[in-house]
């Protein structure tokens, strides 16, 4: 379906190459957080959902991705990207993460995440996957501070699955309700940004100090 600009979501996500594009974007955005990997996942999921909801026999005019392979690609690429960043930081290759350390808030977040990983992980690590640059802070911070891979990997995998499920789920719901339109893509993208804002607020919030014993 074409919108007023003459372009459709199916046209932008047509072809099996969309899986490779999604995986490449997610693999790289742990080192380059400016890449819009989440937007790409949501847009592809919206187009896939709208196509699957179309009446049987209705021509879509273009190839559309399937939701389950899209989810698996997103989750797998997220874990692999985390491992790459972890290994780079563990071997001293922290140059990709240096711009992140210039932010006082991100430095404070990295300290808190490091403490969480030292205790075996937690909800904060999963929340960081949604926050802007949070994934980079976790992966690079875990490697640079020498956290054990067996302590880091399970939480990375959980965060990847939760993030991928949320992103694809947003696209699925929007595609069902709003169809393969630009509005159908913008609504879940805004919801993705909202989740990122909430996650960033929780991570950057100062930890509550325990009350002194009387």
What's the N-to-C terminus distance?
Answer: 68 Å
What's the domain count?
A: 1
Low-confidence stretches: 1-7, 55-60, 208-214
The tally of strands reads 0
Given helix and strand content, the structural type is mainly alpha
Residue share in β-strands:
under 5%
The overall pLDDT average reads 76
What is the percent of helical residues?
55-70%
Total count of helical runs of at least 4 residues = 10
Shape: globular
Quaternary structure type: single chain
Order of helices and strands: HHHHHHHHHH
Q: How would a textbook summarize the main sheet?
A: none
What does the radius of gyration come to? 19 Å
Question: What would the keywords be for this entry?
Answer:
single chain, 214 residues, mainly alpha, 10 helices, 0% strand, globular, disordered N terminus, disordered C terminus
